[in-house]
Amino acid sequence: MGSRFLRAHSRVMNTRRVRMTLAEFVIKFALLNNTRGVRHSLLRRMDIWESWFYHSRCPPEVRTLVRAIDCLEFLSLSLIILIKERMAPVSIREGKIPEQKQIENGRLFPKVVIPAAADQYHNSDSQNEEMAAVLEFIRKEKDWIQHELQESGALLFRGFKSMRTASDFNSFVDAFGWEEHTYQGFAPRNNVVGRVWTANEAPLDQEIFFHHEMALVKDFPSKLFFFCEIAPPEGGQTAIVRSDRVACEMESKFPSLVQKLEREGILTCTPLPKEENRDYFLGKSWQSHLQTNDPEEAQRRVEAGGSKLVWMEDGSANITAGPLPATRTFEGYSDRKVWFNYIPAAVYKKAENYNILLCGDGSAIPRDIIEESARVMNNECVEVKWEAGDVLLIDNLAVMHARRPSKPPRRVLVSMCK
Ligand SMILES: O=C(O)CCC(=O)C(=O)O
Ligand SMILES: [Fe+2]
Fold first, then answer.
1. Ligand of minimum distance to the alpha carbon of 232
2. Distance separating alpha carbons of residues 97 and 99, to the nearest angstrom
3. Domain boundaries of the chain, sorted by first residue
4. Ligand 2: distance of its center to the CA of 81 in Å?
5. Cβ contact 227:163 at 8 Å
6. Which CATH class is domain 90-418?
7. How far does the centroid of ligand 1 lie from the alpha carbon of residue 332, in Å?
8. 39 by DSSP, 3-state: which?
9. Under DSSP, is residue 253 helix (H, G, I), strand (E, B) or coil?
10. Which tens digits make up the pLDDT trace of 66-108?
11. Ligand 1: residues whose CB is within 6 Å?
């Protein structure tokens, strides 16, 4: 298009027209790099005028007037776009993924955020530019992001080419300025960089059941960021489910039992082995779980988290949490009661005798509530199929997550916020 434009203008003879043409030339080429949408159609319109002028006997005054109007329109539009771009350094728009579900008020779960111009940042220099723009965008728009997160429960950032490494992810999370929540839980994880950890390192063929992160301790994170560094070739989706939907369905199916579990709570007993067992999704030893080799310090840490620690003869330990109410309603979510317990994680096939859940009065939890909760979660959930560079932000007070069995390789990282 640029050369057609030059060709048309090399035929211009009188000096007034040359001046006008030069002005247009500068504007066109300044904007050509950044041409999108409306500006694109304006440029097309200018070309059409030019070829019409060339073939017609249009008086020079009319030509000049038309060009002047076009130029003015161009300038003002460009100014508006430039101002807008300055205000929102990276333009984003709402995207779609096939697995999304509609929730109340026509909202989508998760909400998907993608760059407005997917091809804008295509080489490594412009990817650094994109990274800077994304970080600035987060700093400026974090209240909006937080609001959207609270409305939907989860946000998926997809298609940002600058998100490639654990360090990029660390900067992304840092830009929100939310305080880090250091992990103290049962899952085997390693620190990768800064505030970034590996997601649960249990063997990929094992399923990790739905849970709110650290739901058994007093101090759990409110938000979780997951980042996909290597997308699995098959399976390995992170499934997410609105926990209020689960609570609502369970209440309507088992009203008196849910009431009992709310009133008396649930006791959750988790054995911690003496030796680390990385072949298992809850296989951390008590030393690595509590980050100490001193049994007395271990005891103090467990009690600070609101649980009890009982030592076994073989050197392993049992942590008993609770009784904790089966559902919770968090401040700021007045109408959302959430299913905040480890049912049905306790029925994980290989963990039949591992995570033991009891009603607060010591009686067993009926099998049908365990099975029904698993059915509801699988029915209501969205299985996010990872693409490398994705960041999934989850409201841990509203949404549970799970990991589907995966073919290797798969590398998902996590960062948690207070
Ligand atoms: O890898 C995943 O999809 C999530 C695993 C998980 O539950 C976690 O790391 O907290
Ligand atoms: Fe988790």
1. 1
2. 6
3. 2-87, 90-418
4. 42
5. yes
6. alpha beta
7. 26
8. helix
9. helix
10. 888 878 887 887 777 666 555 555 678 899 999 999 998 789 9
11. 187, 199-200, 208, 213, 238, 401, 403, 412, 414
